[in-house]
Amino acid sequence: MLQIVFHAQLATETGAFTIADVVDALANKMVRRHPHVFADAVIEDVDAQWRSWERLKAQEKTGRLRKSRLDGIPRQLGALQRGQRMQEKAARVGFDWRSVEGVLEKLVEEVGEVAEARSAGQSDARVREELGDVFFTLVNLARTFGIDAESAMRRANEKFLRRFAFMEERAVAQSKTLSDLNLDELEELWQQAKADPATAP
Q1: How far is residue 152's CA from residue 195's CA, in Å, rounded to a whole number?
Q2: In 75-182, where does DSSP find H-type helix?
Q3: Fewer CB within a 10 Å sphere, N or C end of the chain?
Q4: Among the three residues 132, 147, 162, which one is the final residue of a domain in this structure?
Q5: In degrees, to the nearest 5, what angle opens at C-alpha 92 toward C-alphas 89 and 95?
Q6: pTM to 2 decimal places
Q7: Which of 109, 124, 147 is the last residue of a domain?
Q8: What integer is the mean pLDDT of 124-131?
Q9: 163 and 183 assigned to the same domain
Q10: What does the alpha-carbon distance between residue 191 and residue 193 come to, in Å, rounded to a whole number?
């Protein structure tokens, strides 16, 4: 709110617009995009509401300037978040999987393509492309489950951090570092870390 008021004040001082103009524009947008609330429109369900929302947004000035429904998604978002936003918008026009099973089958297919590209000795660029498809499908799976992919990844990162720190502490208790341990010893510490309630999500 501080940023909004601050920028509105700067704009007021230059004669561009006022905070009242901002509030009016937002109120008008709210009324325009919700005819089922502020007018007589009848919306059958959530899917119909999303279709109506997209249609009304496309009629606005910024919507008319866009060549694609995906153009308004900020490029500076994290890759997982941006992918999920793109998939959500695509789903609102009916471009979506019929079931979770379809997404899971696609995930298996994409993982297979990574393995195939790697075993065929294809370029790093090809493997990277196939791996990107795996990530994109995982994001789609998260969306299908109603889970925010970015948040899920952050939680997984933090869980790994806690468990890895646990391993480091146990190694230090043995007067060692992780580098001193062989793979079997590292795996044993990892299993201990997973079993410790302090490292749980």
Answers
A1: 20
A2: 79-92, 100-119, 124-144, 149-173
A3: N
A4: 147
A5: 90
A6: 0.68
A7: 147
A8: 93
A9: yes
A10: 5
Q: In the structure, what pLDDT confidence band is assigned to residue 27 with cuts at 50, 70 and 90? A: confident
- Indicate if 159 and 136 belong to the same structural domain: no
> In 10 A of CB 138, how many CB atoms?
19
Give residue 135's domain range: 97-147
- Amino acid (1-letter code) at residue 185: E
CB-based contacts of 116, cutoff 8 Å, min separation 6: 130
- Domain presence at residue 179: yes
Whether 51 shows a pLDDT value over 80: the answer reads no
Q: What is the pLDDT of residues 159-198, one digit of tens each?
A: 999 999 999 999 999 999 999 999 999 999 999 999 999 8
Q: How many residues are there in the chain?
A: 201
Res 63: pLDDT: 63
Beta-carbon count within 10 A of 16 CB: 11
Residue type, 21: D
Instruction: Return d(Cα 137, Cα 86) in angstroms, integer.
Output: 12
Mean pLDDT of the chain: 89
Q: d(Cα 75, Cα 73) in Å, to the nearest integer?
A: 6
